[in-house]
Amino acid sequence: MSGLLxxxxxxxxxxxxxxxxxxxxxKSDAAKPDATAAPAKAPRKPAPAADSPDDAPADxxxxxxxxxxxxxxxxxxxxxxxxxxxLLMYFMLLxxxxxxxxxxxxxxxxxxxxxHIVTIGGICGTVVNISxxxxxxxxxxxxxxxxxxxxxxxxxxxxxxxxxxxxxxxAKKESA
Length: 176
What we know:
alpha+beta
């Protein structure tokens, strides 16, 4: 989550820089100290009645068009790095989580009677009662007393013999 916030912060900084570069003339005029009194503006001459649009006065010019502002800078300069960062973030953060979630859902949907499980709380047991659409499953945790627990299906952390999984971990450590 902090990576996403840092990404958004950097994007906003880049947009602010791009927006600040569009009007340097306005900043330079405002930054000039005014040592003398402001010159008196010449009164504007009324435009003579013109018979055609070609008779416009020569001293009036059209204002310069804005070159595009931050949108042009964003789409021309920052589009490729921005797209690459979003793609990288998808493949490094979102895609692995989706795969893991699908794997867990498939494991929980494939649970059946007599499967050995370990809950997220560390309780080991054997599935005794389970129905396909139910939220709860019943596990047997003690063979001698026939102790049973009713747990949420989502509380299952691992499926399989505990001893088998411990042996696999020890074998990996020995081979390394």
